[in-house]
Amino acid sequence: MDQSRRKRRIGIFARTFRSFRYRNFRWLWCGAFTSTTGFFVAQVAESWYVYEQTSSESLLGLTAFLNGLPILMFSVVGGVFADRMDRRYLLIGSQVMQMVAALGLAILFFVEAIEIWHILTAAFVAGLGQAFGGPAYQALIPSLVPKKHLPNAIALLSIQFNLAGTLGRPIGGLVFKFFSPAMCFLVNALSFLAVIVSLLLLRIPFIPKPGQQNLIRSLLEGFRAIHASAALRSLMLLAVVTAFCGVPIALLLPVFARDVFGLDAGGFGWMGAVLGAGAVVGALNVARLGNAPKKGRDSLIMQVFLGVTIIGFALARWLSLATGFLFLCGGAILAVFTMITSLVQLNVPEEMRGRIMSVHNTAFRGVMPLSNISCGYAAEKIGATNVLSFNGAVLILVALWYAISGNEVSKL
User: Whole-structure pTM over 0.85, yes or no?
Assistant: First the structure.
């Protein structure tokens, strides 16, 4: 009996982490994890410094808006390039651009010449790198593992991102508190070296051939492919709603940490870690399920749950209760994002993957700047609690409408 139970546990472990069997996937995962940890270390410093200096939710929103604006503007163009050139080198260029932005902020903090506009400018430059790197990253994933393991690989890469957040946020809070914000940005700059090295070590069996069409025609071809698919249209719309209403909980976390619960930068970092830890658990569950059926239905169920947990966090006034809701929220938002991304990846042709995933990237990440600036402004006017409660209600209503109306997503 004990041996049978042990074999079952080993089997679950092997299924959950099956994509790590592949060398290219291991290299990319480790490099991205190191770099993303550095990103979260710097993000804590950026958010806390801006809010500490200005006490302005609008400026928090503006910083996030400028970071996401290039994704909204240029991500679809980045998708065309991802279908025309070696995706590794496009990614390396994007990492270098982000590394320069982080290093510039570190230097300005070290020489005590930093101003808020420097942070805003660096956020835009980093976002520009992400606009071209994001589609290449998404398009590269199917080259790392067999198609049948693609949902598992996407979930494990989501775990990478959120595990990095779980570690990076409290590290960032402690480094900010006991050293300086300059050290946070220096850690971020150096962390990009890991992902650059990992990209150079990849052996990719397929490299897209340069396209013969002009840029505009290539873009239109991608949009036509999405328009022709009812499933892809519905998934893109769901991505927009989920990103617009789900992501602001991270943006407004400094407000709740300082003004509601009376925490310092270290406490803010730990609240961020709880959000990330919940996301890791959510991604592990999705990875365990792998290419299971009815992902569309499950994503709608999780979106309802996400809306409930966001409302619960917004209304909680005991730190322990808020922490519990925050953990559940992290798991729900990651599960929804991962399942929607898996469904998109499984329904696109390889020759158009870069372009279609760039639209998906725009739907998820490009809408975030609009959400951040509008939710930051609204929080100043009506309060962060009301903003998150409204967002949670919208998530619930949209998911229920998709389910009741028999939308294509509910059938996937």
Answer: no
